[in-house]
Write a structure and sequence with these properties.
With 814 residues, the chain is an alpha+beta fold. The protein contains 19 helices and 42 strands. Strands 1-2-9-10-11-12-19-16-15-14 form a 10-stranded antiparallel β-sheet, with helices on one face. Strands 6, 7, 8, 13, 17 and 18 form a 6-stranded antiparallel β-sheet that branches. The chain has a 6-stranded mixed β-sheet with strand order 20-37-38-42-39-40. Helix 7 packs across helix 8 (363-373). It is globular and about 80 Å long. The protein binds beta-D-glucopyranose and 1-deoxynojirimycin. The site of beta-D-glucopyranose (BGC) has 6 residues, from loops. 1-deoxynojirimycin binds at residues 348, 362, 364-365, 485-488, 650.
Length: 814
């Protein structure tokens, strides 16, 4: 069953009924001001950091699930009836409804008793504000006297404090009202230099800034007293809960349409210019007034929207594909690239499943996210790499997370996830291959943000590599530390106290438990580093990396191979995990995927056998599950993985993030049919038809789909912020379609299904547009290349002379 449809022309998903199985959301903003918006206008906004600079309040896990957001109410002043044109929160039976989620904007439109209302929400480029463009049309045969109300609830900035410290919070709220603009200035009198504003393009008939004055005591957002009365009370908040609500009166003739613009924004003032007059406590509004005046004008708002549209056209235009599969095209050309922007911006911080409080930007996560983002805005990828590297510790280890506002490592979570350092090599490698900008490696970058500790970025990579060599276990495999990629395989935790964090509790000294996954990652990252070293003219250093890689490869064969598949780990007693000897958790996806994608066992058939075992034991119609058999009880020595009921999350859920590792593994053994088949199983667009089972948005990947051991098999959770976005983008574009960046240039190495006759790609790479056409002449993956009409040996398109605008590539597969 579907709840809408893809409008590929407009690059929108159109939801046609408000009651989707879960809120289906979109992101507003792609630089510094961000918002999350659901298909019924729920959600919130923040500036840079969802925890430290929350602009509007949102209550997670509410009932109903999604209440609180960017609400507009319409009231028929003739009858007194009122409704929400976004359906929530009043939930009237609308005559028409649609929500169009597009690239950086959402338009919710509906019709109720002959009144049509459509609101377009977006964040203009280079501005710290959001615009709600509301148009109201009277389709009745007679005139309509209407009232329009806006409302948002302000958050007192630190979202964590805001939802816990009520003895203080109820006394600190402050607002100002001037020229119909509501200013939220809690804590501005002391250490904050920022405030929020909420403005309206029309002359207002009233306002409220105190929540209970707007709602009335004992009422919710579905039935606000002010809206019911048709009259707000011009309340000024002192403490309690500041809100912003405008009241606008509209008289519409039959057929008449009017536009109203609401502008919600964030503004900073220099510390010494906070007040006007300077010795007062009144916000200095000089700078912000110009911004407000600009966007109150419809033509300016429309102009800003047009700019946003062009921006996305350009970004998506960097890589466009035309394959025989509509789901591939739609995801690569539109939604997967778009999701990669969201994961780049948010890491795993703020979604409808990530509260914005729990996590900042992950070291492991953000490095991987670059794989799907670096071709879009390489400059921002570069900045991110430098920020991440600055949270690396002198040992080569890394803070697991940092807060985007302060760019400091997060002490609560700390470090000791022994896979982390290698992801920096992977992230840097992706950047270098995309851009050829080798100057990055010479950038001075501190350790733990400590001034004076700077070394060239290249040394950070060296320390990453050595971090593992200095931490090998009894079998010569890397020690796992707190966890590796699988945050829930906590082999040094041994926690018996409820509420302890599995990731930060360690009751063992960490000298025994080893990770075969990190071994595979070491092989991949080590080869990458060797390539980088070679390019820096460090031939013998490169050789020494390759020697270590070869040694690790041997160790994996000796101690990481179980006969039919790769082992997963050794526990604190040096017992195998992910082995036929185990009663549960006999085989794990991570090592089958990662070792094969890293090239371990390609020459001697181990990779193929691991992939066969994966197909036999882990693959399901909804995707590949993380391990089998699921853990049926809690294992003290394994940690969080066994805390989940069977079939969910890391305990045998379909953890979509690592499905592309197997997909890439399949391309490495030349099996395009299997690769694309796996790709399709978790492709959200291909799953649109079963939305009642999948339940999450059909336009973005979710972190997890419940595995076959779960009662809700096939149900997705944790949509949007997942490494799946970058990895699947990378797997389909660079390994299945095979348009692959390398240090030397662009490689053309497709491994596509046998049934495909070919495909086309237009890809901008290092400033040159490559128009690539691939045709099948036989069933294999051997490539014959023709570049600008001339045959070229091998699969590398030679870098064209400077100034070249475009290159035509024809590839024939035999
Ligand atoms: C989840 C993991 C996640 C971790 C982050 C765990 O509860 O299962 O997927 O990475 O928390 O701290
Ligand atoms: C989600 C986390 O963000 C990611 O870092 C981790 O690798 C996976 N969960 C698996 O546990």
């Amino acid at each position: 069953m579907k709840y809408g449809y893809f409008d590929d022309q407009k690059r929108e998903y159109v939801i046609t009924q408000p009651e989707t199985p879960l809120p289906w959301i979109n992101y507003l903003g792609c630089q510094a001001y961000f918002g999350i918006i659901s298909n019924t206008a729920g959600g919130y906004s923040f500036y840079r950091d969802a925890r430290l600079r929350r602009i509007t309040r949102y209550r997670y896990n509410n009932a109903p699930y999604d209440v609180g957001g960017r609400y507009v109410y319409l009231r028929d002043d003739g009858s007194g009836e009122f409704w929400s044109p976004s359906w929530q929160p009043t939930r009237n039976k609308l005559e028409e409804y649609s929500c169009r989620h597009g690239m950086g904007y959402t338009t919710i439109a509906s019709k109720y008793r002959g009144i049509e209302a459509s609101t377009r929400y977006f964040v203009p480029l280079d501005e710290n504000l959001e615009i709600w463009q509301l148009s109201v049309t009277n389709h009745r045969p007679q005139a309509a006297e209407l009232s329009v109300f806006s409302v948002i609830e302000f958050c007192l900035w630190d979202a964590q404090d805001d939802s816990t410290n009520f003895q203080r919070n109820f006394s600190i709220g402050q607002v100002e009202m001037e020229d119909g603009v509501i200013y939220h200035k809690t804590e501005y009198r002391e250490r904050r230099d920022h405030f929020a504003f909420f403005a309206c393009s029309e002359k207002i008939a009233g306002y409220d800034t105190q929540r209970e004055a707007f709602l009335g005591p004992y009422r919710g957002w579905d039935n606000p007293a002010g809206v019911e009365r048709g009259q707000l009370s011009n309340s000024v908040a002192h403490g309690w809960a500041p809100v912003g609500s405008h009241h606008v009166k509209l008289s519409l003739k039959p057929g008449e349409c009017r536009q109203i613009i609401f502008v919600l924004g964030y503004q900073e003032n220099p510390q010494d210019q906070k007040f006007d007059p300077p010795d007062s406590q009144i916000i200095n509004k000089k700078a912000v007034k110009a911004v407000i005046a600009k966007y109150r004008v419809a033509a300016n708002a429309c102009g800003a929207f047009e700019k946003l549209r062009l921006y996305w056209n350009e970004l998506l235009g960097l890589c466009q594909v035309d394959t025989p599969d509509v789901h591939t095209n739609r995801m690569v050309n539109i939604w997967n690239a778009y999701q990669c922007m969201a994961t780049f911006n948010m890491s795993r911080s703020a979604s409808f499943y990530e509260s914005g409080i729990g996590r900042g930007l992950g070291f492991r996560d953000s490095n991987q996210d670059l794989l799907g983002f670096v071709h879009m805005v390489p400059g921002r990828a570069r900045e991110r790499i430098l920020d991440l590297a600055a949270t690396q510790l002198p040992t080569g280890g890394a803070y697991h997370q940092y807060q985007p506002l302060t760019k400091r490592g997060n002490d609560d979570v700390g470090s000791g996830f022994n896979d982390d350092p290698h992801w920096l090599i992977i992230g840097v490698g992706a950047y270098l291959k995309e851009t050829g900008d080798w100057s990055l490696l010479d950038e001075p970058v501190p350790y733990d943000n400590e001034p004076g500790s700077e070394t060239p970025l290249y040394e950070h990579l060296q320390r990453s590599f050595h971090y593992t060599l200095e931490r090998l276990g009894p079998h010569g495999l890397p020690l796992i530390g707190r966890a590796d990629w699988n945050d829930c395989l906590n082999l040094n935790c041994f926690s018996e106290s409820p509420g302890q964090s599995f990731q930060t509790t360690t009751n063992k000294d960490g000298k025994v438990a080893e990770s075969v996954f990190i071994a595979g990652l070491f092989v991949l990252a080590g080869r990458e580093l060797a390539d980088i070293a070679k390019h820096r003219g460090l031939g013998s250093e490169a050789c020494s990396y390759l020697a270590e890689v070869a040694r690790m490869d041997t160790t994996i064969r000796e101690h990481g191979w179980d006969g039919e598949w790769f082992l997963r780990a050794y526990d604190d007693f040096s017992r195998k995990i992910g082995s036929k000897e185990n009663a549960e958790g006999k085989i794990f996806i991570e090592t089958q995927g990662f070792c094969t994608l890293a090239g371990v066992g390609l020459e001697d058939g181990l990779a193929e056998r691991a992939l066969e075992s994966t197909r036999k034991l882990l693959a399901t119609e909804h995707g590949i599950v993380l391990q089998q058999p699921a853990y049926s009880k809690y294992y003290l020595e394994y940690g969080e993985i066994s805390s989940y009921p069977p079939g969910y999350k890391e305990n045998a859920g379909i953890f979509c993030h690592n499905n592309p590792w197997v997909i890439i593994g399949e391309t490495r053994v030349g099996n395009g049919d299997a690769a694309h088949d796996y790709y399709t199983r978790i492709n959200p667009s291909a799953r649109e038809e079963i939305s009642e089972v999948h339940r999450c948005e059909p336009y973005v990947y979710a972190q997890m789909i419940a595995g076959r051991d779960a009662p809700t098999y096939g149900e997705a959770k944790n949509s949007w912020l997942t490494g799946t976005a970058a990895w699947n983008y990378y797997a389909i574009t660079q390994w299945i379609l095979g348009i692959r960046t390398s240090y030397e240039g662009l490689l053309i190495a497709p491994v596509i299904p046998k049934g495909w006759r070919g495909f086309k790609v237009s890809r901008k790479f290092r400033g040159v547009t490559y128009e690539i056409e691939v045709k099948r002449a036989g069933e294999g993956n051997k490539v014959c290349l023709e570049v600008n009409g001339a045959p070229v040996q091998g699969s590398l398109v030679p870098l064209p002379p400077a100034g070249t605008k475009s290159v035509a590539v024809k590839a024939t597969l035999h």
